[in-house]
């Protein structure tokens, strides 16, 4: 954070965290599901037998494909196996507490029957409102729904990415930067802004159960230059739905600063910059709320037939979940259903393995957060909110079979046990002031597990 603050009209409007119950619920999630589903699921990263090297949901931007040919995929979208209720059941089994669903990705195809464009699900052979089915099915399972919305819209005639950002990119150069190469383009973009605003109001009106909006594609310079418009639109959306959760990806301030304004203050309810990466230490998150969104392969969000490269295992994903919670964040795992609406077997398997682990160990993830303790070699500490319970989530079993724990002065361990077997208490040895050995005598293990420390004040 900067110490000398500059005057900002469109910077952050709140310093510090939100303290309402809705945001507190968001903080308790621990684990979420992301779903990227749209027309791109039909080609699945392959066009005329050729593999596209980028992320499957970006295939429309591939030079080899005429845009109108891609857009006519609308006439092929008929996912006969789509069953939102089953998706929601499986997400619940995995232990997800919230879902982020792509209502519209960069290709502009709307998964709801928007009245502002004809490029929607309504004009596909499927016809049904997918967003409604997802919202209702997940809500029925007690999973909170967030609507992903891409500002980039390759299908809208008024949309444009804008001229390249000034280089060097400074407060001065940004002031005079013009994203539009002609007056006509600028006027068309005004239409696009109205369209975007109408769609967002439409989404909030149609799906009152949704808890928040998850924005993407807001790095376009043309959008970044709309400081006054985006600021008032965010206010309008928040007024329309009190309690609405919006992350830091929606808008830029008047100097072109995104996520954090020119004073270093977060613009939004939580930090949305942790995509396919995790913080390493608590200082990295600057005391903000945050979540991490993660793909199973390196960088594929929509369905890709050929999953190439390293495919993460359930243990890796569980470790990322534990690490996120230990640093005060949530972890969101992405799924890319196929063009017929089914979830690929590899993803189903991961979901069920994560779910099995969560059934026994989820107590160390849900309503848990940073414990205020230094990270240890065996894994991650989390603290159960509102209790004196500290969890040790173990990923590396020490050869000695003992776990060294250093607690703050004045803290004693009243009781210790594994979450998997609470009735078997573990021997706790105080080796010197506030430093303990937990004797589990477990030296091998292929599955992460949790040791609970019930702490008390030392007398
Ligand atoms: O370009 C998109 C990408 O396709 C995907 O939707 C991710 C999800 O966070 N967001 C963008 C890249 O940051």
Report on the architecture of this protein.
Pfam families: Alpha_L_fucos. Belongs to the glycosyl hydrolase 29 family. One of its GO terms (molecular function) is alpha-L-fucosidase activity. Its EC number is 3.2.1.51. Keywords: Glycosidase, Hydrolase, Signal. With 459 residues, the protein is α/β, with parallel strands linked by helices. The protein has two domains: 21-368, TIM Barrel (Alpha-Beta Barrel); 371-457, Immunoglobulin-like (Sandwich), CATH 2.60.40.1180. Helix content is 25%, strand content 21%. The protein has an eight-stranded parallel β-sheet with strand order 7-6-5-4-1-10-9-8, with helices on both faces. It has a six-stranded antiparallel β-sheet with strand order 11-12-13-19-15-16. Helix 3 crosses helix 4 and helix 9 packs across helix 10. The longest helix has 24 residues, at 183-206. The chain is globular. The model has no long low-confidence stretch (mean pLDDT 96). Ligand FHN binds next to loops.
Quick structural summary:
This protein has 459 residues and is of the alpha/beta class. It folds into two domains: 21-368, TIM Barrel (Alpha-Beta Barrel), CATH 3.20.20.80; 371-457, Golgi alpha-mannosidase II (Immunoglobulin-like, Sandwich). The protein has ten helices and 19 strands.
Give me the secondary-structure topology:
Elements lengths: L20 H8 L2 E5 L10 E2 L2 E2 L15 H5 L12 H11 L3 E7 L25 H11 L3 E7 L20 H6 L6 H24 L5 E5 L4 H4 L2 H14 L4 E2 L24 E5 L14 E5 L19 H13 L3 E6 L9 H17 L6 E2 L9 E6 L4 E6 L7 E5 L4 E8 L2 E5 L1 E6 L2 E5 L9 E9 L2
Parallel strand pairs: 1-4, 1-10, 4-5, 5-6, 6-7, 8-9, 9-10
Antiparallel strand pairs: 2-3, 11-12, 12-13, 13-19, 14-18, 15-16, 15-19, 17-18
The protein binds ligand FHN.
Ligand FHN binds next to loops.
